[in-house]
Every structure is written in C-alpha cells, then in structure tokens.
Amino acid sequence: MSTPATRDLSAGETSSTSRHHVVIIGSGFGGLFAAREFKGKNVDVTLIAKTGHHLFQPLLYQVATGILSVGEIAPPTRFILRDLKNVKIVLGDVSDIDVTAKKVKYVSGRLDIETSFDSLILAAGANQSYFGNDHFEQYAPGMKTVDDALELRGRILGAFEQAELTTDEVERRRLLTFVIVGAGPTGVEMAGQVAELARNTFKDLYRSIDPSSARVILLDAAPAVLPPFGPKLGDEARRALEKLGVEVQLGAMVSGVDGRGITVKDEAGKERRIESACKIWSAGVSASPLGAIVARQTGAEVDRSGRVRVEKDLSLPGESNIFIVGDMMALDDLPGVAQVAIQGGRYAARQIIAEVEGSSDPTRRKPFRYFDKGSMATVSRFNAVVKIGRIEIDGFLAWIMWLVVHLAYLVGFKSRFTALVSWGMHVMGNQRSQLTSTSQQVYARSALEHIEEAAATVTTFTPPEHVEDDSK
Ligand SMILES: Cc1cc2nc3c(=O)[nH]c(=O)nc-3n(C[C@H](O)[C@H](O)[C@H](O)COP(=O)(O)OP(=O)(O)OC[C@H]3O[C@@H](n4cnc5c(N)ncnc54)[C@H](O)[C@@H]3O)c2cc1C
Predict the structure, then answer these.
(1) CATH of domain 134-283
(2) In Å, what is the CA distance from 291 to each residue of 94, 133, 288, 347, 377?
(3) 185-196 and 230-243 helices, crossing angle to 10°
(4) Within the chain, which residue ranges are assigned CATH 3.50.50.60?
(5) Which end of the chain has less Cβ packing within 10 Å, N or C?
C-alpha cells in the first residue's frame, strides 16, 4: 500500500529551468520512440513507466519457449536513453490524469507522486482481454509482459516434467495437451514453437514419455488462421502448422477455462471438453484504462477495445497538448502493431518540438500519415509469412525477411548480437539456451495474490470482545 505523501516532481521543481515539460507515459514502442525525438531539444521530459525496461513484445513467445533470454528482448530503458540528458526516467504506475489541471498521478513503490505537464504523450499500450471472463486468466495466462512469458515457460516445461512422473495414462495425456487460444500471429508463433519443442528440442530427453506425442491445439472462434494476412498466407500458415503436428481447430469458441482443461463451443452451439494442463491465451486485447480516464473528462469516444478515438493529429479531442499513440488510440482502423506506435510516438514528439521552437501552431498541424511497412509472423524454423501491401511471401525467404527486420528493431547492439547467436544455435542445432525455469516464476504471482488477499483479511478482521490474550 502506498503512503499518503504526495510529492510534485514536475520539471519546474527538479531542474533550474522552467522549460516546457513533456510527460510520456509508457516505455514501449510509442513512448520510447517519442522520447528519442527529444534528444538535445529545449524541453524537459519525464518518462513514467510501470517497468524499468523497454519490452520487444513481438519476441515474447521466444522467451516463453526458451530461445531468447529476457535481457535480449527487454533492455533497461535507462541504458537505452542514457545519452538523452533532458530525459528523466521514473518507475511508476500512473493511476490518474487530470486533463484540466495538467497533472499526472502515479504510485512508485510506497510513494504517491503527482507531476504537472505542459504536453503529455500517452503510450500505455494494451492489456490482454478475456472478453469479460477475467477469471480465465489464472488458468490460461496471456502474453503481454516478461512475467507472463516466464510463467508460461515454467508451465510448459512443468507439464513435461509432471508427465514424465505420472503413472496415470489419462493424466499423462492431459499434461501433454497444450491449448493455445487465438490464431493471430502470437498464437501461430506460440503453437509452432511448442510443437517444435516437443518434436525436436525434447527428442531423447525423457525416459518415460515420448515428448513428440504431445498434442498441440490451436483454437480460434474465427474461421481462418491469421485473418489480417489474407486467405492465401493464412492457409499456408495452417498447412505448415499441421505439418508440424499442430491441430488447428477453427470456429471454436472458448466457453469455459479451469484448472483441468477448457470447454469449447463449436459453430453449431455444441459444447465439448479438452482436458489440458497448459492453456495459453492470445485471443484479444483491451487498451490501457488510462484512455478512458482522459476520455471521460473531455467527452472523447472510446471504442469496444477501450481505445480513444483521436484527432487526425493524434491529439485527444479538445486537448491539443495531449497525444495518444500506439495501442491506446483509434484512428482510421489502424492496427495495434509496433509500427503504428513507433510512427505515432515520433509524430507526437515532433509536433511538440515544432511548437516549442515556434515553427508551428496546433491549428496548422499536418495530419498523421501511417506508412505501412507490412506484417510478418514466423510459423516455425525457416518458415514465415510476410504481407507488404499486395505482396505476399511465405516460406524461407519470408523467414529471412522476418529475421532481418527483427534484428534491425531489437534495441541495442548487445541485444542484436546475442539474439543472433541464440537464433543461430536454435536454427542450426535445434538448441534452446534459455530452458531454465524456477518455481518462483510459475507460482510467485499467484502466491503474491494470496498474500495480498490474506493481508486484506487480516486488516479487516475485528476480534470478538470476549477473546482473551493468551500470549502470556
Ligand atoms: C505477444 C505479442 C506479439 C506481438 N507481435 C507483434 C508483431 O509481430 N508485429 C507487430 O508489429 N506488433 C506486434 N505486437 C503488437 C505490438 O507489440 C504493440 O502494438 C506495441 O507494443 C504497442 O506499443 P505501445 O507503445 O502502444 O504499447 P506497449 O509497447 O505495450 O507499451 C506500453 C508501455 O506502457 C507502460 N504502462 C502501461 N500502463 C501503465 C501505467 N498505468 N503507468 C505507467 N506505465 C504504464 C508499460 O509498462 C509499457 O512500458 C505484439 C504484441 C504482443 C503482446
């Protein structure tokens, strides 16, 4: 619980100048690329983020399946922005934004802190969505954070370990059944990797089980795999997954998830059950609730995914100094992908710089133009799909393109170099150097939740009057 103390860490207080103060919320693609634009500019920037790292979410599945380490995809933000002397980084969970007073409130450790801004860039991204069934989460974690990936890695490896020990054949089948919900890029990549783990990496490693007998099921309520990639690439991806032994079940809506398995309703409304110890959720997202907080104060529209409908210049309607970028914004049906966030973050920062330098005013901003660089997803080793406009590529060439693009966007030389070594080991020798998991990684989150629940019970517990002190 945080202390009631509230400190103002606005730039005016902490620096000797009274320069324009920009607050950026989030160190993901939108926030990081916005911050970089301010290098050497006549502004003070405070970047507030819940985590101390910049997370390359598109490669989380490789951490979950033991190919890459956390450090390779999540370098500390302080290191990345160390040369930007006018950018201050603070670890904090933003809880409120006052649009009229231009103040942001956040909790950092045990402190409640408030800071004022002249301009704000909101880039707090999105969370996993369970479409109103949040209780599914404990049984089928999503993949949005480093904690999620490490927990999933532990659950996947743990299922094989338990299967090796059990003598009950039915239980062994359950432990060796992996269900991935959502056949978008993350679901496809995850299903391909779990299948490759079972069929290739784990070959000859166990004595009582045959890991290659594991069932890997990819489910989706939609009738297609990878819908945004179009039917041709979607079918290619499906064929490649089936060749790896993945069972692709489409038109299958999840109606229940529990510790023992998953219940699925098919298109005719008939329910069936899949007994599975390890379930992975990659089916939907909902934007950060901070969007709704600012929208409520200005009457801006919020869509079904919690994204705020922004103006053509990415500003909050009626508030030209507040920008919303990346997964939190709704504009022209732009997808929730890294490039939208990167380009949006850069654009917002440039508008602020232009105004501070006096070369532009908010009424004359050129609208944001998104340059679509295409989409890509890996299916398995040496196999990917790429769509750039009307160009569709699959197979090895697409996989090389995927490799080059992901190397280019991994932040920092060290991350690129070590990722390249890890990928080399994986593709040449089928090796995964990050197959370590601790029980803390799997259970710590739920253990902490239980401690918090227990603490809440203790603080609200009032002993009955007749209880005697027996401590003497
Ligand atoms: C598993 C996965 C795979 C993906 N694969 C691809 C892909 O292959 N290609 C692609 O283009 N896109 C992919 N995406 C989507 C892409 O990662 C997102 O579109 C992109 O990260 C959005 O950037 P953002 O800056 O809006 O949000 P994010 O990158 O999510 O960053 C949000 C930031 O806000 C911080 N934050 C959140 N709430 C608060 C708060 N209350 N207070 C303080 N800080 C807060 C977070 O800690 C984080 O730093 C994938 C996403 C996932 C989850």
Answers:
(1) 3.50.50.100
(2) 12, 21, 6, 19, 29
(3) 20
(4) 5-50+92-128+286-364
(5) C
Is the Cβ atom of 63 under 6 angstroms away from ligand 1?
no
How do residues 180-191 score in pLDDT, each as one tens digit? 999 999 999 999
Find the helix or strand (DSSP H, E) in which 175 lies.
Answer: helix 169-175
Q: Catalytic pick from 72, 151, 189, 311?
A: 189
Q: How confident is the model at residue 465, as a pLDDT?
A: 40
Cβ–ligand 1 contact at 49 (below 6 Å)? yes
- Cβ atoms of 20 and 119 within 8 Å: the answer is yes
So what's the architecture of 5-50+92-128+286-364 in CATH?
A: 3-Layer(bba) Sandwich (3.50)
Which residue, among 107, 261, 281, has the nearest Cα to 190 in the 3D structure?
281
Helix, strand or coil, per DSSP, at residue 342: helix
Catalytic-residue membership of 189: yes
Tell how far the Cα of 363 is from the centroid of ligand 1, in angstroms. 30
User: Which of 57, 323, 403 for mutating ligand 1's site (highest number of atoms within 8 Å of CB)?
Assistant: 57
> What are the average pLDDT values for consecutive 10-residue runs of the chain, which has 472 residues?
51 61 98 97 97 95 94 94 96 97 95 96 96 92 94 93 94 97 96 95 93 97 94 96 97 95 93 96 95 96 96 96 98 95 98 91 91 92 92 94 89 78 80 80 62 55 39 34
